[in-house]
Design goal:
This protein is of the alpha+beta class. The chain is built from four helices and nine strands, in the order αβββββαββββαα. It has one domain (about 15-200): Mog1/PsbP, alpha/beta/alpha sandwich (Protein Transport Mog1p, Chain A), CATH 3.40.1000.10. About 30% of the residues lie in helices and about 40% in strands.
C-alpha cells in the first residue's frame, strides 16, 4: 500500500494556547471509548462519561451526555462522521485537509495537527485540534480521521465555553483536559463505533 500523508498546517495560535498544548504532548495512557446499542438507542462512554445518541442526518451522528439534550446549548459533544466515498488513504487525507480548511475558514486557531504514517497493516490516519470562535462561545474541537478497510470515519469531540470572556476559561480547560482527549480519541475502537452508530438510526 502506498503511503498517504496529510500535509496539515495552520495559522499561529495565541501564546497561551500554544504553551498549553506543549504541555499536553506529555505521554499518557487512556482506555478506549466504550460503545453499546440497544435497538435504535446507542451510547458511547468517553472519558468515563456516557454520551447518548441525539440526532443523525445522512452520515453524521451526534451524541451528548445526560442533561445536554438541547443541541443548541450543549457543552460536550461527540460527533461521528462517515465518509463512504473516501476509500483510500489519499481520499482520507483529502477529507482531513478539507476539515482543516473549514476550521481555518471560520477563523479557527489550529492548536495541533498530527498524521500517523501508514504501515503495511494500516493506512495513515490524521488528528486535528482547533479552537473555533463564535460570538456566543469558544469551541474546542479535536478530531481523529481513520480508514478501516474501505470505511472512513471522523470522530470529533467538542467542548464549548459560553460567554464573551471565554478565552481564559477555555485555556484552563484545555490545560486540564486536552491531552486526555487526544489520547482517548487515538485509542478509540473506531470500527466498533462505526458499527454502533449505523445501528442507531
Amino acid at each position: 500500500m502506498r503511503r498517504s500523508r496529510c500535509h496539515l498546517s495552520g495559522p499561529s495560535v495565541p501564546l497561551v494556547l500554544a504553551s498549553i498544548w506543549l504541555v499536553l504532548l506529555v505521554a499518557g495512557e487512556r482506555a478506549s471509548p466504550a460503545v453499546a446499542s440497544s435497538g435504535k438507542t446507542a451510547t458511547i462512554t468517553f472519558r468515563s462519561v456516557e454520551y447518548m445518541f441525539r440526532w443523525s442526518e445522512r452520515t453524521q451522528y451526534e451524541f451528548t451526555p445526560a442533561g445536554q439534550e438541547k443541541l443548541d446549548a450543549w457543552t460536550d459533544m461527540l460527533t461521528v462522521n462517515l465518509y463512504p466515498t473516501a476509500t483510500t488513504g489519499e481520499a482520507l487525507a483529502s477529507v482531513a485537509n478539507s476539515v482543516l480548511g473549514r476550521y481555518q475558514g471560520t477563523g479557527g486557531k489550529i492548536v495541533r495537527t498530527n498524521s500517523v504514517p501508514a504501515t503495511p497493516q494500516a493506512p495513515a490516519e490524521h488528528f486535528i485540534a482547533a479552537v473555533l470562535p463564535d460570538p456566543k462561545f469558544l469551541e474546542f474541537a479535536a478530531g481523529r480521521f481513520v480508514l478501516i478497510g474501505k470505511d472512513a470515519a471522523g470522530v470529533i469531540y467538542s467542548h464549548r465555553v459560553y460567554g464573551a470572556a471565554a478565552g481564559q476559561p477555555m485555556a484552563t480547560w484545555m490545560g486540564t483536559n486536552g491531552q486526555d482527549v487526544e489520547k482517548t480519541l487515538m485509542a478509540a475502537d473506531v470500527s466498533r463505533l462505526m458499527t454502533v452508530v449505523r445501528s442507531s438510526r
